[in-house]
């Protein structure tokens, strides 16, 4: 080998030749390492393949024999007999299909609905000229036609309430509330719904318009840009605004 070659060499070797021979020896050793590694990987793959085949044969032998008896009941998917639901060739009925059926059973055009999820039975008690802040209402709602400063009649619009009922929206426009603070609160796009027994101010719409509502200790304060505008207190589950009737 290269080591013995250097030990028994009698003649002196120039430095350049020694460097060349060292590089050649290094390349030869790298080639041997790669060859040994490839041979080892090939043997390992062969052993693994043989082991996998053996496991597959064992699992096949252990599989229980499927019953050849025919199913005599009805399929829950299509209603026909002699096959299971999992073997049914028709599209499977899932939750989406059920939801579509439920939607088709609603006789109201959803595109004409104004939605509010907060009009509960507590709001169907009386019909005063008082106003209540509802943080869950999606629209301002007024029952009294005389409170509108501008008014446009509407036809066919519906208000979907939290108790799963609907009410007719007969008009819409602007309402101006006189607050006990001396300020005016102008509400736009207010829905006129005569069936509602409480006039509702949407807390969500106020917040979107830049108003700040602070609820604390059964009271609330409304400001905008740091200016005090209104206040109120908790009554019958909602916050009643201090409005000059």
TrEMBL record:
Compositionally biased region (Basic and acidic residues): 30-42
Region spans: Disordered: 30-70
One Gene Ontology MF term: nucleic acid binding
SUPFAM superfamilies to which the protein is assigned, alphabetical: Retrovirus zinc finger-like domains (SSF57756)
Entry keyword annotation includes Amino-acid biosynthesis: no
Cited PROSITE patterns: ZF_CCHC
Alphabetical keyword list: Metal-binding, Zinc, Zinc-finger
Annotated CCHC-type domain residues: 75-89
InterPro entries: PolX-like_BBD, Znf_CCHC, Znf_CCHC_sf
Database matches in PANTHER family: OS08G0421700 PROTEIN, PBF68 PROTEIN
Protein name: CCHC-type domain-containing protein
């Amino acid at each position: 080998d290269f080591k013995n070659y250097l030990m028994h060499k009698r003649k002196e070797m120039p430095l350049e030749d020694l460097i060349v021979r060292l590089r050649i020896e290094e390349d030869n050793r790298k080639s041997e390492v790669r060859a040994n590694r490839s041979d080892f990987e090939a043997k390992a793959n062969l052993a693994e393949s043989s082991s996998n085949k053996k496991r597959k044969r064992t699992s096949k032998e252990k599989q229980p024999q499927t019953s050849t008896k025919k199913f005599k009941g009805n399929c829950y998917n299509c209603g026909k007999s002699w096959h299971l639901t999992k073997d049914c060739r028709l599209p499977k009925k899932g939750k989406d299909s059920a939801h579509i059926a439920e939607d088709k059973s609603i006789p109201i055009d959803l595109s004409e609905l104004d939605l509010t999820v907060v009009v509960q039975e507590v709001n169907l008690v009386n019909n005063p000229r008082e106003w209540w802040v509802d943080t869950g209402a999606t629209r301002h709602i007024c029952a009294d036609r005389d409170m509108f400063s501008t008014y446009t009649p509407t036809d066919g619009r519906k208000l979907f309430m939290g108790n799963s009922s609907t009410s007719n929206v007969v008009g819409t426009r602007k309402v101006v509330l006189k607050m006990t603070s001396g300020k005016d609160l102008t509400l736009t796009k207010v829905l006129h719904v005569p069936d509602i027994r409480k006039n509702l101010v949407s807390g969500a719409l106020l917040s979107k318009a830049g108003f700040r509502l602070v609820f604390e200790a059964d009271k609330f304060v409304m400001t905008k840009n740091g200016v005090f505008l209104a206040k109120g207190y908790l009554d019958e589950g909602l916050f009643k605004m201090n409005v000059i009737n």
